[in-house]
Amino acid sequence: MLKYQEIVADICRRIDAGEYENDSKIPSVAELCAHYGVSKITVNKALNDLVQMGIVTRRRGAGTFVKAGSLGPSAYAWSEATRIDGTTAHYAGQGKTVNSRVIDFSVVDSNAEVRTGLGIDGGFVYHICRVRLIDHKPVVVEYTYMPVALFPDMTREVVEGSIYHYIENTLGMQINSAHSAISAVRPTENEQEWLAVGPDEPLLEVKQVAYLSDGRAFEYSTARHTADFGPVNAVRFRR
């Protein structure tokens, strides 16, 4: 393991242990250089990796902070994969069709869990529940919360397509990274119907907090994937 990778692993361990709490400032570059006995180049490379992994955010003139709403460093094994293709773009490039069946698109008041996930004090959020279909086969159910204040003009038409494409190409915002936690779950009765699976057929659940390049969390979501969609695919595609 290279030195900068050791620094990344140690900072993750400290966050996981609660030494560096969510939204708290970690030591400065100079302090980290002294602590680890390395150059600024090495520390900056480590911090840049942590930024790309979605673990910290660097605020100009203020320092480096643990991102609020973190799902925990133990959940980061797949986090870098979230920077690859969008689901629609990837499968369309393979000649496949991608569709969304919207179950719910509404505005609700944020609850404690959503506020924590998005790192907000309160306010209204979009609740989006939709089923994604590849070549007309349902493969994912997504439950998503997004701040209305960030996307005041979100429409059902956007939700029926690629939300991430809308954010980056229509709004001109840059999506940077995500925290993802993965587990296996049993489908609910609704999910059995939506995904055409049996009650004992496991689903791969991916809980995610996604961030813009300025460090703001814009999405708190839970996606439940059919087993044939695969653990890699489940975390490598953006919405």
Structural summary, described in words:
This protein is an alpha+beta fold. Helices cover 31% and strands 31% of the residues. It has a 6-stranded antiparallel beta sheet with strand order 3-4-5-8-7-6. Strands 1-2 form a two-stranded antiparallel sheet. The longest helix is centred in the N-terminal third of the chain and has 14 residues. It is globular and about 55 Å long. The protein starts with a helix and ends with a helix. About 8% of the residues have low confidence.
Outline the secondary-structure elements:
Elements: H1 3-16, H2 29-36, H3 40-52, E1 56-59, E2 63-66, H4 87-93, E3 98-109, H5 112-118, E4 124-134, E5 137-147, H6 156-160, H7 163-170, E6 175-185, H8 189-195, E7 203-212, E8 217-226, H9 231-236
Antiparallel strand pairs: 1-2, 3-4, 4-5, 5-8, 6-7, 7-8
Helix pairs in contact: 1-3, 2-3
Quick rundown:
This protein has helices at 3-16, 29-36, 40-52, 87-93, 112-118, 156-160, 163-170, 189-195, 231-236, and strands spanning 56-59, 63-66, 98-109, 124-134, 137-147, 175-185, 203-212, 217-226. With 239 residues, it is an alpha+beta fold.
Oligomer: single chain
Number of helical regions: 9
Low-confidence stretches are 72-85, 231-236
Q: Give the termini distance in whole angstroms.
A: 33 Å
How much is the average pLDDT?
83
N-to-C SSE string, H for helix and E for strand: HHHEEHEHEEHHEHEEH
Strand content: 25-35%
For the CA atoms, what is the radius of gyration?
19 Å
Percent helix range: 25-40%
Largest sheet: 6 strands, antiparallel
What is the number of E strands?
A: 8
Computed structural class: alpha+beta
Shape: globular
What is the topology, as strand order, of the major beta sheet?
3-4-5-8-7-6
